[in-house]
Amino acid sequence: MNETTNTAAAQLAELPYLSMGASFLVGLAVGYVIKKSFKLMLFILGLGLILIFFLEYEHIISINQDQLLSFVESMRLSFIEFVEFLKDRVSQIKLSGTLSAIAGFLVGIKMG
Q: Do the domain assignments include residue 4?
């Protein structure tokens, strides 16, 4: 049983993220969330547009192009505000952890 415990501990020690600092992990989480939320937003927007276009094709509704474009623009601006909020929050981490947070952010973007 001792060998099993040693093997499990060795496997955990091989995970690179366990030895990273807190600022790296915060940056990693923020980058991952940004990428996943962007993908989710695009997926929902795409499904909504397909539904709207189908309903227009079936003559159930009519689309005001200007309102549709303004809605998409407002969604884009909301996402930009969300990203700016997260970037400001990560930048408040003390200077020694900033490089680590940036590295974590980039890894999180890559992983997401």
A: no
64, part of any domain: yes
Q: pLDDT tens digits for the chain (112 residues)?
A: 455 555 655 555 555 555 567 778 888 888 898 889 888 888 988 898 899 889 989 989 888 889 888 988 998 898 889 888 877 876 776 655 677 778 888 888 888 7
3-class secondary structure, 63: coil
Q: Other C-beta atoms within 10 Å of 56: how many? A: 12
> What is the value of pTM for the model shown?
0.58
Helices in the chain by DSSP H: which ranges?
A: 2-13, 22-57, 65-91, 95-111
CA-CA distance, 57 to 54, in Å (whole number)?
5
3 state DSSP class of 21: coil
Give me the domain span that covers residue 65: 23-111
